[in-house]
Structures are given as structure tokens and as C-alpha cells.
Write a structure and sequence with these properties.
Layout (H helix, E strand, L loop, with lengths): L13 E2 L4 E2 L2 E2 L5 E4 L7 H9 L4 E4 L3 H6 L11 E3 L10 H8 L4 H14 L4 H15 L5 E4 L6 H13 L3 H8 L5 H19 L5 H8 L3 H15 L2 H9 L3 H11 L2
Parallel strand pairs: 4-7, 5-6, 5-7
Antiparallel strand pairs: 1-4, 2-3
Helix pairs in contact: 4-9, 4-10, 5-12, 6-7, 8-9, 10-11
Length: 257
């Protein structure tokens, strides 16, 4: 199937359902993921409205939401899950860029360290908890997104796949769909210009692709940390996120055929 849903002003929009999952299969048309919707066209909004989305989880920091406020379709009535918890000062990514040599290695090291810490941030735990509670209530399709739709979104999508029983290979393959060559070619020059404006230096093509993309090692780092602190991913979900066995079963009941 074609997982990417082509929109004019919303990047990385795709359906992350329709995978074999344990003895069943994830539904199609229930789980969506994307980048922000600040540049959504009216046509994009109509397409999103037609998906029947009833819950949107905005994983961005408050300064990101203020900088790029989401556009909404006419008659918008979806629940929006977000928070302002634990956010002070400048965006760490921007702080990193100003002090970085913008090499592939430095960007990769930053992202590995980000994934080591991201599963345990207070604001992420709150958002993850509320997301799974919303899914378990079976009200309808859900959209999860952050700024680029790759890291925070990728982590939450992977956790959803884990709960559903999606095989590790499929889980990783879905995560890596962010590395879309057409998106790199279309958005890369604009992304590089943003970095050049912020730092006075223009990243190489390889560095740009590293910053815009994901690697399996990133997700593996997060999973290793979850297991190291809580014994297993289920242990992390139960003790850190608050999603116990009954909660996981309720989530599966909604998203599996």
C-alpha cells in the first residue's frame, strides 16, 4: 500500500496502520502521523477533514506551536492533546545548531542523545499517556504530529506498533519511511536556508539529510534505554506512561481488525 498521503503544505503525512500485528492486523484509516499543519492549504484541510480525525496529538513545545500555529478545517471539532510542561528557554535544537560544526557526525550524535532522553521527559510522558487513553476510548481516527513528524512522532508511532504486536522489522521499516527522497529534494534547500539564516553557515547536503532523516539506531537507542530502566518496553509503558495490561488490551481492541 502507499502509506504517504500527498498533501501540498503538510509534510510526512502517512497512515501507520495496516500491518500484521500478532494474530491480527492493524486497521487502515485509524492511525495517522505527520509534520505540523501550519502551512496546510485549504485543499489539505479538506483532505484531512475527510479522514474523520477526532483526536490530534500535538507533540510540539509551546514555542513551536506559537511559531507555526496549526491550521484547522471548517467545522473542526477534534480533541487536541498538547501541553506546556517542563519547557524553559530556547529550543535545544537551535542551541545545538549554533554551537555545532554542522557535520554529519555531530548531528547524528545529537539525535542519538535526544532519543536516549526523550522517552523520559515529563511532557512526553504526559502526552503519551493521554494519547493512549484517547485511543483506548475508541472514538475514531487519531493524528499524531510534531514539527517534522519524525522523532517525537516516530517514537510514539513505534510504541503504538509495539502495543499492537507489530513485528520489529515492520516497526522499524515504518519508522524509516520518513527518509523519503522526494521530501529531501523538495524541502532540503529550504531547510538548509533556515539553518544558514540561524547560524551563518550552510550545511552540506549530507548533513541536511541527516538532520531531516532518521536512522534505525536512534529508535534502538530509545528502546534500549526503556528496557534498561524498566526491564522491558511493556514495563516502561506500565510504570512510566501508565498504560497497564488492561490499557494495552483496550488500545488493541480499537486499532486491530
Amino acid at each position: 500500500m502507499t502509506r504517504h498521503i500527498p498533501l501540498q503544505g503538510v509534510e510526512n503525512f502517512r497512515d501507520f496502520g495496516d500491518y500484521a500485528a500478532g494474530q491480527g492486523r492493524l486497521k487502515k484509516g485509524v492511525l495517522f502521523r505527520a509534520a505540523h499543519q501550519a502551512e496546510a492549504t485549504d485543499q489539505d484541510l479538506a483532505a484531512m477533514a475527510a479522514l474523520g480525525i477526532v483526536t490530534i496529538v500535538d507533540l510540539r513545545r509551546p514555542n513551536e506551536r506559537e511559531r507555526d500555529p496549526s491550521r484547522r478545517w471548517e467545522g473542526f471539532a477534534a480533541e487536541v492533546i498538547d501541553n506546556d510542561m517542563g519547557v524553559t528557554g530556547e529550543d535545544p535544537w537551535h542551541t545545538f545548531l549554533r554551537g555545532s560544526d554542522l557535520s554529519v557526525g555531530s548531528i547524528r550524535d545529537y539525535l542519538v542523545e535526544y532519543y536516549r532522553r526523550a522517552p523520559f521527559k515529563e511532557r512526553h510522558l504526559d502526552l503519551f499517556r493521554r494519547y493512549f487513553q484517547a485511543v483506548a476510548q475508541a472514538r475514531g481516527p487519531v493524528l499524531i504530529h510534531c514539527a517534522a513528524g519524525k522523532d517525537r512522532t516516530g517514537l510514539l508511532a513505534a510504541l503504538t506498533h509495539h502495543v499492537a504486536g507489530v513485528a520489529d522489522d515492520d516497526l522499524i521499516d515504518d519508522y524509516l519511511l520518513t527518509n523519503n527522497e522526494e521530501r529531501f529534494a523538495r524541502r532540503g534547500p529550504k531547510f538548509a536556508t533556515v539553518i544558514e539564516t540561524a547560524t551563518g553557515r550552510r550545511p552540506s547536503d549530507a548533513a541536511m539529510r541527516t538532520a531531516m532523516g532518521v536512522e534505525a539506531d536512534y529508535l534502538a537507542t530509545a528502546i534500549t534505554e526503556m528496557k534498561g530502566q524498566y526491564g522491558s518496553v511493556d514495563g516502561y509503558l506500565e510504570k512510566a506512561v501508565g498504560l497497564d495490561a488492561a490499557g494495552r488490551e483496550a488500545v488493541r481492541a480499537h486499532i486491530l481488525l
